[in-house]
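seq:
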Amino acid sequence: MPVLTPTRRKLLGNVSWLYALQGLNYLVPLAVLPYLIRVLGVERYGLIAFAQSFAQYFVILTDYGFNLSATRHIARMQHDRESVSRHFWAVMFIKVAMMIAGAVVMGVVVAAVPRFRVDGLLYAIAYISVVGSVFFPVWLFQGMEQMRYISFLTGGAKMGSALLLFIFVHRPSDYVVALAIQSGGLLLAGIAGFALALTNFKIANRLPSSTELSETLRDGWHLFVSNAATMAYTNSNVFLVGIFAGNVQAGYFSGAEKIIRGIQGLLAPITQAFFPHISALVRDSRDRALLFLRKSLIWIGILSFVPSAMLFLLAAPVSRVVFGAGFLACIPVLRSVAILPFVIAVSSVLAIQTMIPLQLEKLLSRIYIVAGLASLALSIPLIRQLGATGAGISVSIIEVFVVLAMWTVLHRHGVNLLKPNPPAAAIARPELEAKA
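struct:
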């Protein structure tokens, strides 16, 4: 039996803790989904999903790519507590400032648009999840490779919220209570995570300088652009379906999306735990990093293809379990997105595990910008014509395009994860790429 090195033991431990986290993050909401749809009805459930998708825009704004850029930064300096403290406060200062600005923007939009104004309280409650996201320094725990704390806090919040939903939500009029419970759980997890980070990692109080703030913003800019563009063909679909096809169709698409996320949750812990490990590995040996990435791509590709195929074949019984009497309308929606677990898993290896550690964020952001614009041009007419199914077809096409574009860019920079032992010298340095 092979002996695990300390590094591999730590990596395996992080993957295990993240599996516990993702199991609760994705599988608990998936277990609650049939109950909420039956109790609230598809239309009220769709209204909640619409409000949450609107709030998600502000989650992306306040994240600003820090879940990747700050994770990478912390992973490289995790043994220098003074540097960790300085970066922590720089990131938090920026996130809080963006959270306040986002609240003002949401308030103006809700007040100005009649459709939003009718359910103003609902959107205010949805914004509570943004506050929780801002204060929960997931990026710090990941960079320090201490994922078990994320598992405890987020998992506890999910379990507590699920229990409260069963206790307090019994009729369609309880839809506001249902959203408040979900948003409140995220807020409590965020506050607890912030307090734990300060004490466990001995974060010293530091007032960030203007130079530190500007450098932190610059470091996360391309990832922010990537995230914002990605949102155009991921989060925006529920929002656009709600706008152009109504809350019922939004409910169908949101339900299908939660099923997809539940499947993705089976593989997400691997990519999340590998990211700081690969970031550190690239610093020491690019050849070793590429060998590790090649093995990751093969195994993750195989593991993600099976559930995608099963979801396509079993769309009818899965829809019956989740949506009950209205399951027939969701079968084509599920089949339209069945390919996503496989495609997104491959995409995460190429983007998060490969392009970002190799400092190809500029090119990655360009891919996402093109994909975001293409998605808007494709999804709106498809949603008008086919409703939630049109949104599923659109996002599947765009995700395939993103994978092909990433593969092409990496190949041009001397990275082919299907070929053995690509020479590190063949990889174009980011500074040479920038000049080109």
